[in-house]
Amino acid sequence: MSAPEHASHKHGPGRYVAVWAALLVFTALTVGLGRIHLAGGWSIVIAMVIATVKASLVVLFFMHMKEHGGASRLVLATTLVFVALLMGLVLLDNATRFPLANPPTEATLPLMPPGPDATLPAAVPARAAH
Amino acid sequence: MSLSPVSIPPPSAEPAPLFNERNYLVAERGWRSWLTTLDHKRIGMIYLVLTLVAFLLGGIYAMVIRVELLTPGPTIIEAVTYNKAFTLHGVIMILLFMIPAIPGIFGNFFIPLMIGARDVAFPRLNLLSVYLYLAGMLIAIFGMIHGGADTGWTFYTPYSTTTITKVWPILLGGFILGMGSIVTGLNFIVTIHTLRAPGITWMKMPLFIWSAYATSVIQVLATPVLGITLLLVAVENVFGFGVFDPARGGDPVLFQHLFWFYSHPAVYIMILPAMGVISEVIQAFSRKNVFGYRAVALSSLGIAFVGFFTWGHHLFTSGQSAVDAGVFGVLTMFVGIFTAIKVFNWTATLYRGSISFQTPFAYVVAFLFFLVFGGMTGIALATVALDVHWQDTYFVVAHFHFIMVGGTITGFLGAIHYWWPKMTGKMYSEKWGLIAATFIFLGFNFTFVPQFLLGNAGMPRRYYSYPERFWPLNVASTAGASVLALGFVIILVYLLLSLKYGKPAGPNPWGSRGYEWQTLSPPPVENFESQPTYPRPPHDYDDANPAKEFH
After folding, report:
1. Residues A19, A78: one domain?
2. B263: pLDDT confidence band, cut at 50, 70 and 90?
3. Minimal Cα–Cα distance from A86 to chain B, Å?
4. A95 in a domain, yes or no?
5. If you count Cβ atoms within 10 Å of the first and of the last residue's Cβ in chain A, which end, N or C, has fewer?
6. A52 and A11 in one domain?
7. Is A71 in contact with B193 (Cβ distance < 8 A)?
8. Is residue A111 in some structural domain?
C-alpha cells in the first residue's frame, strides 16, 4: 500500500512544475488554434488530441497513476471503457438516425409544414448527400 | 482445528445467551449517540427507519393512484394532482426506497459481519451517506409540498424543462441522493477488498457479498451520469440552457440516453442485492450448499456489466435510430442469460434439500415466481417490434413492477424476516409471517396481472382517465393493491410487536451456517466476542453433524 506513496515522494516539485508548464503550453496552443480556422473540421480533431494529452498528463502525474499499479489502473481503465460505451452508443444513434429511420426514397421535405417556421433539422441535409 | 465452517466454542464453554444484553442497540443511550454513531449496525438501523418512512410515503401515493383509477373518470383527485402523484410515487419508491434499502440496511449491517470485520472501511463516510440521504429526502419532500413535479420520475425533456410545476427541488434532491449512493458503493468496494478476515478468500465470500460488490460497482460507475443529467435539466429548466432543446442545437433524445445510462443499471442496483439475499436464504432454508457457487457469484458481475449495455431499449419509439434500437434489443437479451444462470442454480440448490418452509423461504418462492415472470416479459419487451405495441402501456408498468416490486421487495422482505432475529435479538410471529406473505403474494398478483392485460389491450400508462371497457380490470387491480397494502401493514405490526413481546431469538434460530450467524443476537458493538476463523466456505451443510452448528 505504502510503496507507491514512497515512490511519489522520491522526486521533488520539479516534475510537477514541468507538467504544469506543459499544461500551460498546451492550453496556449488550444487558444491559438481557436483563432486559426482550419478547413475540414481539423480544428476540433487537433483540439481533442491536445485535450487528451493534457488529461493524460494530469492522470499520470498529478493523480500518480504512473506510480500506481494493478487495481488503480484497472479502475481507471474500467471507467474509460464505460465513458467510451456511453459516448459510442449515443453517437451511433446520432450517426445512423435519419438515413435508416426514413428510407432514402421517402419524401421528407414535402411533409414539412409550410411557412417561415419550417426550418430543417441539421441532420437532414446530411441525408441528402447519401 | 475444528471442521465446522466457523470456530465453535469448546464443549465446556458456557452456552451463548438467548439475548445478548451487551449489544450495539444499548451500548450508548440517547438520540445524540444515534445521530453521531459510526457503528455500521446502527447506521443500518437508521437506514431501516428512514427507508421505511419513504416506503410508507411512496405506498400512500400508490394507493392514491389506484383509488383514482377505480373509476374511468375523475374519482378523488384532479388530473394535475394525479400527474404529481405518479411522479412522486416513482421518485420516492425508486430513489428513496429501492435503491438505498437493501444496501443501506442489510449491506451496512451484514457486510462487516459476513466478512469478519469490525466495521466498514470508512465509518465516517458511512455516516455522511446517511446525512446525504436525509438531505436529499428532505429537499425532495420540500419540492413535493411546494408544487410537486408532474413529469413522471423519468423527467423527460422537453416537458421537464418547460413544465410550470417546480421540478428543480426534486432534481436537486435526486442529485444529493445520488452522492449518498456513490459514497455507500465506494465504501462497500473498499471494505470488501481490504477488510476480509483471514480465511475469507474471494471464492469463499458469502454470495450476498458478491452481489453487494457488483451493486456497488454499478453505483460508483453509473450514478455520476444521473447526477450531472439531473443538474443539466435543472439548469435548463431554471436558466434556459439549450442542452436538450432542439431550437438551440440540443437534442431531447440525448436526455433519454443519459438518463437511462444510469437508470437502467439502477434496476440492477435494486435487484442484485435482492438476488444476494435470495442466495443466502435459499441455502439456509434448504440446508444445502448452493449449487454452482462460482456461477452464482460471477453472474452478479455479469449482470452488472451487461446491464450497462442495454439502456437504449427504453428509447425504441423515441426517435432513436433503427440500428441503435436493434443493437440494444440484442444486448438486452444477454441479461436474461446471467439471470437464468442464477435461477437455475437456485432451483438446483433446492433439489433434494431439506426445506423448511418458514417466512423467509416463502419470500424466496415468491421472488422466484416474480423474477421469472417479470424477466420473461422483459425479454419480450426487448424485442423491438413487440415493444412498439407495448411502449408506454400498462404492460410496461406491470413488467417493471414484477421485477422491482415482485423482485426487490420480496428480496427485501425475505431479508428482513431472515435477519430480524440477528438485528433485534427477537423472533416475530411465524404464523402471522406466513399469513402476511400470502397476502403479499396474492395481492401482488391481483394488482399487476390485470395491468398486463390492460396494457396489452392498449391502456396507456400515466393517463388520468380511461374508456369504460378497461373498468373491470382496473377495479381488480385496485382491489389487489389493497390486499398488498394490508399485507405490508400486518408485517409492520408484528415486527413492531416482536420488539416488545417477541421471544429471544438466540444466536442462530434458523440453524444457518452463513458466516454472520456466528455472533450473538443482537451483536455486540465489536461484532464478535472473539475473532472467528473461517476454515470452511459459508453455508457448508455437507457435514450434517448438528454439533457443528454455530453455538
Report:
1. no
2. very high
3. 7
4. yes
5. N
6. yes
7. yes
8. no
Give chain B's length.
Answer: 551
pLDDT per residue over B325-351, tens digit each? 999 999 999 999 999 999 999 999 999
Let me know: does B143 contact B149? Beta carbons within 8 Å.
yes
Do the beta carbons of residue B119 and residue B112 sit within 8 Å?
yes
Q: Does B321 contact A100 at a Cβ distance shorter than 8 Å?
A: yes
| Residues A61, A38 within the same domain | yes
- Which tens digits make up the pLDDT trace of B113-122? 999 999 999 9
Q: Measured between CB atoms, which of A78, A97, A121 is closest to B321?
A: A97
Q: A39-60 b/e with 16+ CB inside 10 Å = b? A: eeeeeeeeeeebeeebeebeee
Bond from prior residue into B158 cis (ω within 30 degrees of 0): yes
Q: Is residue A112 part of a domain?
A: no
Kindly determine whether residue A97 and residue B246, on different chains, have CB atoms separated by under 8 Å. no
Arithmetic mean of pLDDT over chain B: 92
DSSP assignment of A50-108:
HHHHHHHHIIIIIT-TTT--HHHHHHHHHHHHHHHHHHHHHHHHHHHHHHHHS-TTS--
Same domain, A3 and A22: yes
Q: What pLDDT, on a 0 to 100 scale, did the predictor assign at position A122?
A: 47
Distance CA(B134)–CA(B153), nearest Å, equals 19
Of B112, B205, B196, B113, nearest to B520 by C-alpha is B113
Q: Is residue A41 included in any domain, yes or no?
A: yes
The helix-helix angle for B207-239 and B293-306 (nearest 10°) equals: 10
Angle at B83 between CA B82 and CA B87, to 5 degrees: 115
Residues A6 and A36 in one domain: yes
Give the up-direction half-sphere exposure of residue B444: CA atoms within 13 A in the CB hemisphere: 28
Distance from the Cα of B251 to chain A's closest Cα (Å) equals: 10
- A27 at B interface, C-beta within 8 A: no
Maximum pairwise Cα distance, chain B: 81
Cβ–Cβ < 8 Å for B46, B131: no
Structural domain of residue A85, as residue ranges? Answer: 71-105+119-130
Rounded to a whole number of angstroms, the distance from the CA of A116 to the nearest CA of chain B is 14
The domain segmentation of chain B, as residue ranges, is 43-548
- Range in B96-100, B237-241, B468-472, B519-523 the model is least confident about: B237-241
- Do A79 and A100 fall within a single domain? yes
Domain B43-548 sits in CATH 1.20.210.10: yes
Q: Is B7 helix (H, G, I), strand (E, B) or coil?
A: coil
C-alpha pair distances (Å), B267 with each of B23, B94, B107: 35, 9, 17
Residues in B closer than 8 angstroms to A92, CB to CB, are 321, 323-324, 327
Side-chain half-sphere of B435: how many Cα atoms within 13 Å? Answer: 12
The alpha carbon of residue A27 is apart from the nearest alpha carbon of chain B, in Å, by: 25
Determine, for residues A100 and B193 on separate chains, whether the beta-carbon distance falls below 8 Å.
no
Query: What are the residues facing B398 on neighbouring strands?
Result: none
> Do the chains contact at A100 and B327, CB–CB below 8 Å?
no
- Provide, as residue numbers in chain A, all residues whose Cβ is less than 8 Å from the Cβ of B322: 96, 100-101
A88 in contact with chain B, both atoms CB, cutoff 8 A: no
Domain count, chain A: 2
**DSSP-assigned beta bridge partners for residue B460:** B393
Are residues A90 and A52 part of one domain?
no
pLDDT digits (tens, 9 = 90+) for B35-81: 999 999 999 999 999 999 999 999 999 999 999 999 999 999 999 99
Q: A97 and A49: one domain?
A: no
Q: Which residues contact A77 (CB under 8 A, 6 or more apart)?
A: none
- Residue B212, pLDDT > 90, answer yes
Quote the radius of gyration of chain B (alpha carbons, Å).
Answer: 23
Residue of B nearest to A103 (CA): B322
